[in-house]
Amino acid sequence: MIQSKFHLSDPASPLLALAIHNGHRLPEGLLPYTEISAEDRFREEDPHTGSIAQHYANHIVLETSRFAVDLNRRPDKAVYQNPEDAWGLTVRNGVVPHSLLAGLRYSYQSWYATLQYQIDRMLCQHPVVVVLDLHSYNHRRGGPDAEPDPQEKNPDIILGRSNMSEDYYPLIEDLRLRLDGQDLAGRSLDVRCDVKFPGGQLPRFLNERYDGKVICVAVEFKKIFMDEHSGVLNPALLRFLSQIFLKHSLAWVNENLKITTAR
Predict the structure, then answer these.
(1) Contact 260, 127 (CB under 8 A)
(2) Which of these, 130, 143, 168, 237, is most buried using a 10 Å CB contact count?
(3) β-strand 187-188 against 129-137: which pairing, if any?
């Protein structure tokens, strides 16, 4: 039930980019039980994070919506059923049948098993693997005509470290310093750690399961590259942002892990 694009073309690279909230598709069997509109779903998904992930030789991009199965939640909370599961949004118009719910949860477990298999393969080549868990977030919660949410609590990029050992905090701070202040089409990038989104279930799972072997950092891009209400994309700004993040994250991995990540 979960559709993903797995692309691992460079065994010499220890870097894997994930875009697990990129998708918009819902399984056909779930549609009769879905109340939320496609527009409201799209607003709460992380569109175009797949485009950022695809700049990396090794990447996995979800095509299935988080409103079917949320891979960044615990298994028992991965399928939204009540408004409290989804920020007060009415996602369902009725109870999801047990057989369908079991199938969605099984697809969650299967996806994680496949992810572990791919990471295990990478660890056969590298002593440490770095995973970038890419997301995006809204910053105009007041509506399309309201002022953007204050910059103080809404930096352009957030690096989430809460689900990793504090031993790695200086390493993530090094990435932050490389990105912070970079010029983005006349805008000085504001990059901070652990503001609003410190990381969810996926980095928690990887950092605990592969302690000392996998460093998974959650990355949240503010949706400055699109209109979060209309969905209109600024392709040039997304391209510039992707290039900046790619350049500095590759250099960061190369210099800190002493391995070559160039294509």
Answers:
(1) no
(2) 130
(3) unpaired
Listed residue (154, 241, 143, 164) closest to 207, CA to CA? 164
Asked whether 219 and 158 are in contact (CB, 8 A), the reply is yes
Question: Which residues are paired to 21 by β-bridges?
Answer: none
Confidence band for 196, pLDDT divided at 50, 70 and 90: confident
**Burial of 32 from C-beta contacts in 10 A (0-12 / 13-18 / 19+):** exposed
Tokens at 182, concatenated: 């970079």
With beta carbons less than 8 A apart as the criterion, state whether 164 and 216 touch. yes
CATH class of 4-257: alpha beta
pLDDT digits (tens, 9 = 90+) for 175-190: 999 999 999 999 999 9
Query: Dihedral of CA 60/64/69/72: which sign?
Result: positive
Structure tokens at 139: 């910053």
Rg (CA), the chain: 18
**CA end-to-end span of the chain, whole Å?**
32
Q: In terms of pTM, does the model score above 0.85?
A: yes
> For helices 235-257 and 169-179, what crossing angle results, to 10°?
140
Helix or strand holding residue 49 (H, E): helix 49-53
Distances (CA, A) of 3 to 24, 63, 180, 250: 10, 5, 34, 27
